[in-house]
C-alpha cells in the first residue's frame, strides 16, 4: 500500500534562519521602530505592556518588511518585468514604496469601489493602480490573470514564506530590545505577521507564549484552527485584519506554533484606538489596536505577564478617527446628548439652560423638534448635546433636571 506524503512541520516551512537573514537583508531600508513600555496601560491591564510602534514605518505599517524581503530576493529578470499584487491596504503601499525605491515596476489591482485616498496614496509611491471588479476576489483574480499574461511576479500579502520571514523580523527586534517578553499578542488577518512572530518565539531557548487576536466579525483563522463556523463579515474598524480566508501556509504555521486565538468586539477596538491616542499620543488603525483590545477584553489571561504587542499600522481615515474619539467621549460620560421634553412656551429653553449653567455643564448644540414627534402640538422635544467632566457629573445634571420636573433621557450610542 502506498504511503501518503507527510506534510513538513511548520518549523521547516519558515525557519529562524530565514527570519534572521531577512532581518539583515532589510535592515538598512526599514525603520527599526521602538519597543517601549506603557506604564499607564500596564497599570490599567495588570500586565507589563510593551508596544512595538510599527505605525512609525514610512508607510505607517509593518507590511513594508515582508514586501521588501520579497523584492530583494527576485532575480534580475523578475525585477525587470515587475511585480503585481491585489491589495487596497498597507501591503499595496509597502510594495509600491520599496518597488519604486529599488526601480522595480509595481502594479496593484484594487476593487473599483476602493476609496480614492487609497488609490492616490499608492500611486504616490510610484505604482500603477488598476481598478477591477466590485470585490477583492475579483481584483485578485484579475491580478493573477495579468501575472500570467505579462510575466509579472505575484506578491501575496501573507501566504508566502518570504513575506512571513520579513514580518518575523519584528519579533527579533522586540526580543533584542526587551528580552524578558514572555507573551506575544499579535493581530491576525491572513496570518503572515503572527506566523513570522511565532517562528521566532518558538525557536527561543525559553518558553514564549504566542496569542493571536481577531475581530469578532472576521474570525477566519479562529474558525480554521478550531473547526468552528462563526459568521465572517461585516463593517469592522479593524479593516486591516478583515480577511475571510486565511492562508494555507499561514494556517499550518498557526496551527502548530500559536498557543491561542482570542476575539475582540468593535467596542473594545474603538476604546483601544482612543486610549492609544490619549495615553501614548500615537495614532493607530483598528487592526493596530487589536492587541490592546485583547488586553482590555481578557485581562485575566494576561495579568502578571510581560506582554509585547504590535501597533501594526496607523493608516486610519481622519474622519473615522474623529468619530471613534467622539464616541469614546460619549461612552465615558464626557460628551452626551440629552433628550428633554418641554412645553412650547416663552422661557422654556431658558429655564432648562439655567440648570445646565448651575451644574457647570457646557452646552455644545441644541436641536428643537416640533413637527416629527408624537407629542401634542404644544409639546416639543429638545436634544441638547453637552460636555461634562465625567459620568458622575452627567448623572448630577440629569438628577437636577428630573428634580425640576423635566422628563429627560440620554440618547444612547449603539
From TrEMBL:
Highest taxon in the source lineage: Bacteria
Classification via Gene3D superfamilies: 3.30.70.260, 3.40.50.1100
Cofactor(s) the record lists: pyridoxal 5'-phosphate
Keyword annotations from UniProtKB, A to Z: Lyase, Pyridoxal phosphate
Keyword Lyase: yes
A single GO molecular function term of this UniProt record: threonine deaminase activity
Reaction(s) the record says it catalyses: L-serine = pyruvate + NH4(+)
EC nos: 4.3.1.19
Annotated PROSITE patterns: ACT
Residue ranges of domain ACT in the record: 337-414
EC class (word): lyase
Residue runs in coiled coils: none
Record family assignment: Belongs to the serine/threonine dehydratase family.
Protein name, UniProt field: Threonine ammonia-lyase
Organism: Sphingomonas qomolangmaensis
